[in-house]
Amino acid sequence: MSAEVLAEEFEVLESIYPTELSIVSDREIQIDVEPDETVDGEHLFKLQLSVHYPDEYPDGLPQLTLAAIEGELEEEEHDALLESLVTMGEENVGMAMTFTLVSHLREQMTSLVRKRADQLIAEEREKERLTIEAEEARTRGTPVTIDSFKAWRNKFGREMAQRKTKDEEERLRAFSPREREEWKRSTTRPSGRQLFERNKNLEHDDDSLMEEGTISVDISQYDRSQGHTHEDEDDDRVHFSDSD
């Protein structure tokens, strides 16, 4: 490659990219590249393409380097863009290819920006879907099964017992020693239910219901024939007549 041929290409590039092009040496240039289109919501994105021309250019590929000037470029994105540029350069071997490479890079950057925007929208929709599902699950509640109900009932019983014990302890703190002792005695007295459960046959146990000194009377031992009515007494008396 003659210096004159490369100088002519540099002159053409300067006319196309007056503010974007920087000539580093007679064998190397740098061009600031932006996407062809901007996408709403996407941050400013600009790359710098460095091109180093070998002696065999344009019959050989130039050495290409990419760096982010504004915005961010992931390693995976960088490798994909650079690979795409190499492929395009191989298709244009034998011709001045710098303008073609820059145009191709602008197109690829536009596709990347659109992909980022679409991914952002998908993430927002997924986040919204998860939020809706979480709200529905919260309002719908958890289905009740026999096992879950038993677990809840046991837990509730323990909590109520603990609360009752705590309330009693707080109440006892306010009692005098005498009141505390009376309260303890009252709580240790058996309840009516406990007494009933101790002897479920109380209604058939006459001895347990009789008080001391009570006399048992069997009314069946009395014979009505042995009783004397007033009429019988009158019949046994002697009657006197006035006629006598």
TrEMBL record:
<dbReference type="Pfam" id="PF05773">
    <property type="entry name" value="RWD"/>
</dbReference>
<dbReference type="InterPro" id="IPR016135">
    <property type="entry name" value="UBQ-conjugating_enzyme/RWD"/>
</dbReference>
<dbReference type="InterPro" id="IPR032378">
    <property type="entry name" value="ZC3H15/TMA46_C"/>
</dbReference>
<feature type="region of interest" description="Disordered">
    <location>
        <begin position="160"/>
        <end position="244"/>
    </location>
</feature>
<feature type="compositionally biased region" description="Basic and acidic residues">
    <location>
        <begin position="225"/>
        <end position="244"/>
    </location>
</feature>
<dbReference type="InterPro" id="IPR006575">
    <property type="entry name" value="RWD_dom"/>
</dbReference>
<dbReference type="InterPro" id="IPR040213">
    <property type="entry name" value="GIR2-like"/>
</dbReference>
<feature type="domain" description="RWD">
    <location>
        <begin position="8"/>
        <end position="112"/>
    </location>
</feature>
<feature type="compositionally biased region" description="Basic and acidic residues">
    <location>
        <begin position="160"/>
        <end position="185"/>
    </location>
</feature>
<protein>
    <recommendedName>
        <fullName>RWD domain-containing protein</fullName>
    </recommendedName>
</protein>
<dbReference type="Pfam" id="PF16543">
    <property type="entry name" value="DFRP_C"/>
</dbReference>
